[in-house]
Amino acid sequence: QVQLVESGGGLVEPGGSLRLSCAVSGNIFGIYTAAWYRQAPGKSRELVAGFTSVGSTNYADPVKGRFTISRDNAKNTVYLQMNMLKPEDTAVYYCTVVVNRGYGSTSTEWGQGTQVTVSS
């Protein structure tokens, strides 16, 4: 059993900042890769930021220069720092991770989502 607990969402004014956290727990031996997705009302889920298999990062064009993905391996936690937020960033944000389950196995897990609303 693997649990992902997301936190940090909320209501913020345009230009403000939020930091999302995704704490992973359960029967795992670490996180291989991680990413944040978002889904706005009436739209498909889209990749926001993620780690590649070699540890580098990639970002969707709309968030480049404003969002930063990071991780704390000791805490099995992934973060998304969001600065200079815009109304179009409003969405439910989801964390997803590929975790080491041991004995050469992995699994992909998703969080429950956290709402981010950017509005004045």
What would you say about this model in short?
A hairpin with a 4-residue loop joins strand 7 and strand 8. Helix content is 0%, strand content 59%. The protein is built from no helices and 11 strands.
Main sheet summary: 7 strands, mixed
Report the structural category. mainly beta
Mean pLDDT: 96
Q: How many strands in all?
A: 11
Secondary-structure element order, as H and E? EEEEEEEEEEE
Shape: elongated
How far apart the termini lie comes to 40 Å
Q: Count of DSSP helices?
A: 0
Given as residue ranges, the uncertain stretches (5+ residues, pLDDT < 50) are none
- Rg for CA atoms: 14 Å
Percent range of helical residues: under 10%
Q: State which percent range the strand residues make up.
A: over 45%
Plain-language structure description:
The protein has 120 residues and is mostly beta strands. It has strands spanning 2-7, 10-12, 18-26, 31-39, 46-51, 57-59, 67-72, 77-82, 91-102, 105-110, 114-118. The strands form two sheets. Strands 2, 4, 5, 6, 9, 10 and 11 form a seven-stranded mixed β-sheet that branches. It has a four-stranded antiparallel β-sheet with strand order 1-3-8-7, with no helix packed on it.
